[in-house]
Amino acid sequence: xxxxxxxxxxxxxxxxxxxxxxxxxxxxxxxxxxxxxxxxxxxxxxxxxxxxxxxxxxxxxxxxxxxxxxxxxxxxxxxxxxxxxxxxxxxxxxxxxxxxxxxxxxxxxxxxxxxxxxxxxxxxxxxxxxxxxxxxxxxxxxxxxxxxxxxxxxxxxxxxxxxxxxxxxxxxxxxxxxxxxxxxxxxxxxxxxxxxxxxxxxxxxxxxxxxxxxxxxxxxxxxxxxxxxxxxxxxxxxxxxxxxxxxx
Length: 248
Ligand code: 1GP
Hints:
This protein is of the alpha/beta class. 46% of the residues lie in helices and 17% in strands. The protein has one domain: TIM Barrel, CATH 3.20.20.390. The protein is built from ten helices and eight strands. It has an eight-stranded parallel beta barrel with strand order 1-2-3-4-5-6-7-8, surrounded by eight helices. Helix 7 links the parallel strand 6 and strand 7 (199-202). Helix 7 (185-194) packs parallel to helix 8 (208-217). Residues 20, 139, 174, 177-179, 202-205, 223-227 line the site of SN-glycerol-1-phosphate.
């Protein structure tokens, strides 16, 4: 499957929801996650992302991804928190650059170390600009982000357009997993107006209203992670919102 093509086509046709699973052994139960993701697929989620900022162990990650691949037919896409987030069992990997990091390692250093292993793993790399907005949470801390202030839609747009001009396939606006507030709607609108590539938004989306806000503001894809562990019913409502947009 050409996963990038699947995302580009899906984002052209309507709105999508992606489910994020953190492969931290302290946060995920490999016994039940397959069934949870298969339920999310029945609700209508369009992809399973696997990644986190901390505590990634290769064997655990491989087994987790293998299990997910046998439970769902939507793509399983790695969302690595570093060079150790690679598994050959996935369909694709978001090959991300944390453009607003203060540390060149997270902009292009980790990527240079990961490129050959990704090729050897035989998984599809999908280039993505990763932009961290305050509060940024663990991702902002680990990635040494020079956080984009919540009222600075201009700066977010500048990064996003630069990403498009640099040839990246999509932009991810991230408030951070577990953020108290998601990325502001005004920022999403401003960024979306400035780019033609798909815009993914995640971090702190916990209600159907928040999903509605992000999607109406211009997000093509929304991501929920934390909620999957907390309240599967709410994830269903969020996915329903994304599906309704496809029919508008
Ligand atoms: C984190 O944007 C994702 O990278 C999802 O965030 O866990 O807050 O849903 P949540």
